[in-house]
Specification:
This protein is mainly α. It is built from 6 helices and no strands.
């Protein structure tokens, strides 16, 4: 298990390194590997659904390489989003595997397929809305008009 965990932190550090490169900051691999280990520890000690880790990550990077909290938050949320997308792919793969094996009732496959489809459509809708400032404004305007009026 230890080599697999070390590989996991290696992948996280490389992902952070690339994401920080996209926002214009070059951070060392060693620093980000250590930050990934610390972030894992903080998220396990304070199980708050990742909120504590997000705050810690922003504070850690602000004190170390003097990055803004906005950049640290953006990178961390992007990492969480990419993790969510990878789990969506695993859900679809698992659903196909269950359907092909035929050891699960059809109703279970139908419910899982419906939930997976809803999840994919919701994710696609979210990405579409967030892709443009005008779509964000229009969405929230329509949402508030629907809730108020």
């Amino acid at each position: 298990m230890l080599p697999i965990e070390a590989l996991n932190y290696h992948a996280q550090a490389r992902l952070y390194q690339r994401l920080f490169g996209l926002v214009g900051n070059k951070l060392t691999y060693r620093y980000l590997y250590r930050a990934s280990l610390e972030l894992n520890f903080v998220n396990h000690v304070f199980p708050s659904g990742g909120v504590t880790g997000l705050s810690y990550f922003s504070l850690r990077l602000r004190d170390g390489p003097k990055l803004s909290s906005g950049k640290a938050t953006l990178v961390h949320i992007t990492k969480i989003g990419l993790t969510f997308l990878s789990f969506e792919l695993l859900i679809i793969f698992g659903l196909f595997s269950l359907a092909i094996m035929g050891r699960v009732s059809n109703i279970t496959v139908m419910v899982a397929a419906s939930l997976s489809t809803l999840l994919l459509v919701g994710t696609g809708g979210f990405v579409y809305i967030v892709g443009s400032q005008s779509r964000i404004n229009n969405f929230f305007t329509a949402l508030t008009k629907g809730l108020i009026g």
